[in-house]
Specification:
By secondary structure, the protein is of the alpha/beta class. It has a single domain, classed as 4-Layer Sandwich (Purple Acid Phosphatase, chain A, domain 2). The protein contains 9 helices and 11 strands. The strands form 2 sheets. A 6-stranded mixed β-sheet has the order 3-2-1-10-11-8, with helices on one face. A 5-stranded mixed β-sheet has the order 4-5-9-6-7, with helices on one face. Helix 8 runs antiparallel to helix 9. 46% of the residues are buried.
Length: 300
């Protein structure tokens, strides 16, 4: 079994300074399939649809913003806790439990945050306060880290290649999974070539998946390949976003998630329909801003 990334193992859940690690040339990770969920935003219907559609997996990682915007914060937390143990805090998680100001939020997001704070149980408020800041690295998954925004700044939005270049260059970990932007896809860096990737789908109403094969550290180029791909090397770096479960913003209303297979080094992106009307009706019944319901239908 060969791996696709190269880095020594981390030391657990707390964030790590970039200077603590030196990129190695190769490693052999355990074979594991990771279900990646991000930006659930209290949308229970979308979360349930993702879980029902997810293929077999060994580990579930939540990349943050379990709450905010939607009408089922306590239920979403309970479901997320039942799924797995690996969490990264998001900005809405922090705002809902009082760890950050809502001053930078738009009015609808701010109102939803205050409503969410009032709805959350004392236990769930404490749980949100206890969530770790990324990057998170696990001993059993060397070469991989998990963040909400950027490995360099948990609140940074990585939307374009220009946004991604600095963390791609600075991080000693070759494979980073992130959320925050609600945009499914990612960025890669090989040599001096950086590229953005967005999965493509045939429909906007059916369950679909799209594979992104990552470059393996044991890939061998032929002489012809080396001539044509001089900038490619075995230290390729990736920033990968599974998309938003509960509030996609890429023009596709379907709930989004991803699965990473460490043995094949393939990220499979998924889009699944869910009970959109039920999620919208709950938002309206809670007297949350109407825009938070209508935007779900457009994926914006």
């Amino acid at each position: 079994m060969k791996g696709c990334c190269s880095c020594p193992s981390g030391t657990g859940l707390p964030p790590f300074p970039a200077s603590s690690f030196t990129l190695q040339k190769s490693y052999n990770p355990p074979s594991v399939r990771i279900l990646l969920l991000s930006d659930i935003h209290s949308n229970l219907e979308a979360l349930d649809a993702c879980v029902a559609a997810a293929p077999a997996h060994d580990l579930v990682v939540n990349l943050g913003d379990t709450v905010g915007y939607g009408a089922n914060p306590n239920e979403a937390i309970a479901r997320a806790q039942a799924l797995g143990r690996v969490f990264v805090r998001g900005n809405h998680d922090r705002a809902a439990c009082g760890l950050m100001s809502i001053g930078d939020f738009n009015p609808a997001a701010g109102l939803a945050t205050l409503w969410t704070r009032d709805q959350l149980t004392a236990e769930n408020l404490d749980w949100l306060r206890s969530l770790p800041q990324g990057p998170i690295r696990l001993d059993e998954l060397p070469g991989i880290q998990f963040v909400h925004g950027s490995p360099l700044d948990e609140d940074k939005y990585l939307v374009s290649v220009q946004d991604a270049i600095e963390p791609l260059l600075a991080s000693p970990v070759p494979l980073t999974f992130f959320g925050h932007t609600h945009l499914q896809g990612g960025f890669s860096l090989a040599g001096e070539i950086s590229e953005a990737y967005r999965p493509t789908y045939r429909t906007v109403g059916k369950p679909e998946s799209s594979d992104w094969p990552l470059r393996k550290d044991n890939d061998k180029d032929t002489d012809k390949d080396k001539d044509e791909n001089k900038n490619k090397n075995n230290a390729s770096r990736y920033l990968i976003n599974p998309g938003s479960v509960g509030q996609p913003r890429d023009g596709d209303w379907r709930a989004a998630f991803a699965v990473f297979d460490s043995e094949t080094c393939i990220v499979t992106f998924y889009r699944v329909p869910y009970n959109l009307r039920a999620a919208q009706e709950k938002i309206l019944a809670a007297n949350l801003p109407q825009w938070l319901a209508t935007r779900l239908a457009t994926g914006r």
